[in-house]
Amino acid sequence: MKEPVLEEMENAGGFGNGFHGVGEKDDFDPSAPPPFKIAEIRAAIPKHCWVKNPWRSLSYALRDVFVVIALAAAVIYFNTWISWPLYWAAQGTMFWALFVLGHDCGHGSFSDSPELNNLVGHILHSAILVPYHGWRISHRTHHQNHGNVENDESWVPLTEKLYKSLAYSTRLLRFTVPFPLFAYPFYLWSRSPGKEGSHFSPYSKLFAPNERKDVITSTLCWSTMAALLIYSSYAIGPIQMLKLYGVPHLIFVMWLDLVTYLHHHGYEQKLPWYRGKEWSYLRGGLTTVDRDYGWFNSIHHDIGTHVIHHLFPQIPHYHLVEATNAAKPVLGKYYREPKRSGPFPIHLIKNLVRSIAEDHYVNDDGDIVYYQTDPELFKSSNSKSD
Question: How confident is the model at residue 286 (pLDDT cuts 50, 70, 90)?
Answer without folding.
Answer: very high
